[in-house]
Amino acid sequence: MAGNIFGTLFRLTTFGESHGEAIGGVIDGCPAGVEIDLEEIQKEMARRKPGQSSIVTQRKESDTVKILSGIFEGRTTGTPIGFVIENDNQKSKDYSHIKDVYRPSHADYTYDQKYGNRDYRGGGRSSARETACRVAAGAIAKQLLKDIKITAFTSAVGKLKLEKKYSELDFNEIEKNAVRCPDGATAEKMETYIKEIRSQGDTVGGVVECVITNVPAGLGEPVFDKLHAKLGQAMLSINAVKGFEYGSGFEGAEKKGSEHNDLFNEDGSTRTNYSGGIQGGISNGMDIYFKVAFKPVATIMQKQDTINSGGEKVEMQGKGRHDPCVVPRAVPIVEAMAALVLADFYLLNKTSKI
Amino acid sequence: MAGNIFGTLFRLTTFGESHGEAIGGVIDGCPAGVEIDLEEIQKEMARRKPGQSSIVTQRKESDTVKILSGIFEGRTTGTPIGFVIENDNQKSKDYSHIKDVYRPSHADYTYDQKYGNRDYRGGGRSSARETACRVAAGAIAKQLLKDIKITAFTSAVGKLKLEKKYSELDFNEIEKNAVRCPDGATAEKMETYIKEIRSQGDTVGGVVECVITNVPAGLGEPVFDKLHAKLGQAMLSINAVKGFEYGSGFEGAEKKGSEHNDLFNEDGSTRTNYSGGIQGGISNGMDIYFKVAFKPVATIMQKQDTINSGGEKVEMQGKGRHDPCVVPRAVPIVEAMAALVLADFYLLNKTSKI
Amino acid sequence: MAGNIFGTLFRLTTFGESHGEAIGGVIDGCPAGVEIDLEEIQKEMARRKPGQSSIVTQRKESDTVKILSGIFEGRTTGTPIGFVIENDNQKSKDYSHIKDVYRPSHADYTYDQKYGNRDYRGGGRSSARETACRVAAGAIAKQLLKDIKITAFTSAVGKLKLEKKYSELDFNEIEKNAVRCPDGATAEKMETYIKEIRSQGDTVGGVVECVITNVPAGLGEPVFDKLHAKLGQAMLSINAVKGFEYGSGFEGAEKKGSEHNDLFNEDGSTRTNYSGGIQGGISNGMDIYFKVAFKPVATIMQKQDTINSGGEKVEMQGKGRHDPCVVPRAVPIVEAMAALVLADFYLLNKTSKI
Amino acid sequence: MAGNIFGTLFRLTTFGESHGEAIGGVIDGCPAGVEIDLEEIQKEMARRKPGQSSIVTQRKESDTVKILSGIFEGRTTGTPIGFVIENDNQKSKDYSHIKDVYRPSHADYTYDQKYGNRDYRGGGRSSARETACRVAAGAIAKQLLKDIKITAFTSAVGKLKLEKKYSELDFNEIEKNAVRCPDGATAEKMETYIKEIRSQGDTVGGVVECVITNVPAGLGEPVFDKLHAKLGQAMLSINAVKGFEYGSGFEGAEKKGSEHNDLFNEDGSTRTNYSGGIQGGISNGMDIYFKVAFKPVATIMQKQDTINSGGEKVEMQGKGRHDPCVVPRAVPIVEAMAALVLADFYLLNKTSKI
User: The domain that contains C42 carries what CATH number?
Assistant: First the structure.
C-alpha cells in the first residue's frame, strides 16, 4: 500500500491498524527551531477523541501522543518527528463476527480484492482511527504556521443546515457545544437530531465548513498542485468524505462572470470573495473557505443483508460503539489536514523566487 | 514553480505558456508495448480545440501534437514520451493592455505576489492553454487503460441542469451537439442560453459529470491517495474548477446510513451505488461517477473596475476571443485527467500483492 | 530535514536520535502476502548489534524490533509496516562534555550550521544508530526478494586486503569470524590489527564488498535511477562511507575496450563480468558486485584539539565505547541497503511493460 | 521507464532517443527571478559537443538548445523551463546492422529484457546523447548557484594519471587542451595516448575529478539524501561511470582516525580536508572534491563475437564515429550533474530552519 505519505516538503507518513498495538507517524521536513507546545497537541487529540460527549462513540482511547524524536529542549531540531499513539481498545475478539463478512459500504471487500488478505479486526487500516495521527501531525503543523488561523465547524447534520455565512458567526461558540456548530440554536437542533438517529440504530451524514484567515499571498503551486487541489485531495482522503468545494463552489457554477468576478480594492484585497482566497491555485491573502461533505457512518445498529468472503448471503448487525454522526469529531481532522497542506505550501513558497 | 508533475508511476510533466513558442509535456513511466494510435490523440485534441463550434472561443490553434520520443514502430518503448504543441496564436501585442493590470478573478495578482514577475502575455502559465497537454497525455493514458471506458458530459450550464441520472442517458448523443450534453432537448436549451450570455458580453459556469465503467476492483491507494482523493485533486487542478463530488456527493451528507449503504449482491456487485464505485479509497468494480463544478470564465466583454500593479484604480474590458462557457471544452479535459489518475493507479496496483 | 525517506515504491522512512527514547521506521509499499519470519529480522539485528564480539563497541543495546503494524497472521497486509527499536543506552549525561564542542570529522558543526540547534546527545540523528532501522527494514526487503541472495563481507581493514576474488571465496566462512572476512587467515590478521589499533586508542577504516546473485534481468530504471546509481546512493548514505565502485570500478577506468567488453554466451550470460551484472543501469542476470569504502571512525581515544560552538580552542578526548573499526558491523548494513534498493526496483519492474 | 526525473525541488525531467527527432527536458522548480544568459548555456553545450576536437567523435550535432518556456525578458518566471535539442544526426539506416544484434557491454540486451522491445537506432534512450539535456539544465542550475564554482577536469586516461593534487593545479589550463587536463605536460601525453588507442580501433577509460569551491555550509539532507550520496547517484547515473569517491575516498579506508580526522581552525574551517567538504552528509564550507571513474567506450572498431536476439552467435564490428575516450567530453557533464545536485540542495536548505 503506497499512499501513506502526504506532502512534498512537510511530509507525514502514518502507519497502524485500528486494533494493532499502536498507530503512529513520522513528519519529515519540519524545519528546525519551531517551538512545540506538547499540550496543544494533546488538546487537538481531545477534540477528536472518542467518548468526548454524549453524541459520539463511547469507545475508550486515551489517545496520548508519545513523541519519540525530532523535538529537543522544546524545539524541533529539523530531524524527523516520530510519534506513536497506543491503541487502548484492542479487543480483537469483538471483531471475529466480521472476519469473513463484508460489511456494506465499508472497505472490507475492496481491501480483500486489492491485497488478497486483510486485518479484519475493526477495519484495520481502513478505520478512521488512522486520522488520530493526522490530528497529531496537524497540531505540529499549526505551530509552524503560527499566525495562520484555521477554524472548522459543523455546518450541516443531515438536512439541518446552518444558514448563516461564516462572517456572521462567532467562532468562539464552536467548542461550546458537542456538535461544534457556531450557532447555539442550530447546534441544539443538530444534537437532538443526532440522538434521535442514534436511538433508531441509524447514522447520518453532514458537512464541515472550514475558514482559514491571515494567509499570506503566494501559497500554492500551480499547475497540478494548486492550493485548492491539494486541499481537495487532503479533505477527500478523510474517511467518509464524498465532496469538496471552495469559495463559491457548486453554486458558483450557476453564476455569470459579471456577478462572480471579485473586483479589487486598491490594496489588492477584493470586494467580494467568490474566489475563496485562491486565484490560479495561489492564495491571494483573502480568507480561504471550503466545505467538506461526509456520508453517514456505514456501521448501523440495524440488521442488514450482506455477503461473506465465500459470496454467500448472510445477515449482520453492527456491534460495538460507533458514531451516529461523524461530523463533530471530523472538525479537528479537517483542520489538521488543512494545516498539513498549508505547512507544505508555506515551505515550498520559500523557494519560489530568489 | 513546483507542481507541474502529476502521478507517481505514470507521471506527466507539462510546460509552456499560452503565448510562448510552444507548450508540451513528458510522460515518464508509461509501460513498454502499448500500441498507440496517433489519430486517437488528435481526435481528443479536436474535442478540446478552440474554434470547434459556434459556442466556444474562435481563436485559431491547430493543436497538433508532435511526439518526439518514446514511441517506436507504433508502440511505446518504455522510455519517456516527450511531445510539443506549437502555439499558433502568438500575438503578444494583443496583451500589452493587460501588462500592468490585474484582471479580476484571474491569476495575475497572485502570480506577481508569488513570483515577483510574470509572463503577462495572455495568462502565461495560468492560462487554460496548458490543459491541451493534459488532453494529449490523457489520450495516451486511455490507450494504456484500453477496456476502461471514461465518459464525461455537460450536466449543467448555469442553472440549466440535466435532470436525468447517467444511467438513463444515451452517451452516443454527447458528441452530437456543441454543448456535449447527452440529452438533445436540454442541449438545445443550454446552447441557446450560452449564446444569449455571450451576446451580453458575459460568461456562465457549469457542471461536468463523468462516468467510468469497466473498472477492475482494486485501484486506489489508501490512505492519502484514495482513488477519489486523487480524482479530486486532478479535477480541482483544472482551471476554473470550484468543486468535486463523487457517488452520492453533497446529497449523501443529507442521508441516513440505512438508506445510503450499498447492499451486496452475491457476486460482490452492489444493489445501489451511492459509493460511486469506490469504498475505502479503492475501486470495487462498480461504475465510478463524479461531478465537477466550473465557475464562469473571468474574462468578460464588459467594463470592469480593477487595479494596476502600482495599486491604482483602472478600468478595463476584456478583448480577444474567449469562451462564454468553459464547460463544453472542459469535457475532454475531465476525461483526460481521469485517465491519468486511473493509469497511475492501474500501474501501482500491479505491486499491491505478491 | 528532508531526506529520511528512501525508495519510490518500497519506501522506508526512518526516525530517531541515538539517545532519544526510541528509533524506528515505516515501510510504505511492501506488497501484501509476503511471509515474514520475525526471527530473521532479529538475526540481522544481531549481526549489526554492539557488543557482539570483542572487536566492536561494548555498548549494550538489545535492539529488539517491535513491529506495530502491517503484518497480520504472519504475512504482510499491504499496509505500512511501522516499527520501533528502543534505545536502552540512554545515558544523556555521558554526553554533556560534548554539548558545546564540535568533535573533529563528526557532524556536530554541520548540523549546527544547518539547523541552528542540535540534539547533542551522542550524535543525535547523525549517529550510526539510525542504521539499525535500515537493517530491520532490509530484513523485510530480503524476505520479499526471496531467491535473490545478497552477501556482503569485509574485504579490507586499513591496508590489510583480501586478495582473492569473490568467486574464490567460501561465503560460509563469513559469519565464522568476528571480522566477517570469508578467508580465515586474512580474518585473523585483520582481527589482530583491529585490536592493536584499539589499544592505541585509535581507529581504522576498511572496505566492504557485496555480491548479489540470482538477480533477474531487468531491474533498474534508467536514466537517473540506474541500478548502480541507486546502489551508490544507498551505500554512500551509510555513515562513514567515502566511496563506491561496482564491476570493474576504478580499475576499469585503466582498461581498454577490447579487454573490458563482456562477450556474450549464447544464453545471454557473459564470459567475463566487468559490467558487474549491470548494463545501461539495468541488471543483466549476472552477479552484481560492488565495493564500499569506509573511513576510520572519527571518535578516537586520544586527545585532540578542537573548537567549541563559541569558536574557542578546546582540547577533547573521546569517551565511552566506540568501534575501533566500523567495517565488521557495516556488513549487514550494506546488505540491508542493497536489499532496499533491489526491493524497490523489483516492484518498479512489474510496471515496465504491459 | 521511470527514472527520468532528477531532484526534489529543482527537478529535471529528460526525454528523447539518440536518433529520434529531438531530445529535451523540463526543469520544474527553478525559482523566479534568476537572470539567464542563453550564451552561457550554449557555451556549456559546446564543451560537450561531438566534433569539438581531433580526439573526440566526429559526428555532427549543432546542439542548439531551444528554450520553449519559463524564461521571459531574460529572467526565469518560476514556471517550468521546457527545452528541446534537435537531433541533426538522424541517419537511421546506419544502425540497421545492429537491429537484432546485442552489442557487447552495451544496454541492448538489458533493454530488450526489461521492455520487450527497444529503439535500436544507435542506442536509443541508452545513448549518452541524453546527457546533452543534462548539460543544458546544468548550465541553468549554475546560473542559479552563481557564486558556487564547479570545476571538473580529466585526472586520468587509462593508466596515465595526473599526479598532482587539485590545489597545485591551475584550472585556467583546463580548457586550453583537448583532453581537459589542467597540467599541460600530462595533457599532451594523454592526447597522444588517446590517438594511439584510436588508431588501434580501440577505446580507453579514465577518471574525471571535480572540485566545488565557495559552497556555503548547510547543503545536503541527511539521512538518505546526504550531499555526497546524491552526488554519487548523479555521477553514477552518467553513462559509463563505474565508481565514485569523495574526499579521501578509497584511500581514506586505509587510514587511521588519528591521521584522517580534520581538526578545526577557530573560524570553523579545517586544517586538512579529508572530509571533502562534507560531514554527516552536509557541506561544511570547505572545498568539495570527488572523482568519477569511466569505463572504456564499449563500441570498438574491432571484430567482436556476439549474439543476436535469437541467441545465435554472430560477429560484429563497430561502425560510425565514436569517442575513443569519453573522459574529455564527460568533464562538462560531471559539472552539470554537480550543479543539479547543488541547486536542489540549495533550495531545500531554504526550508531547514525557521
Answer: 3.60.150.10
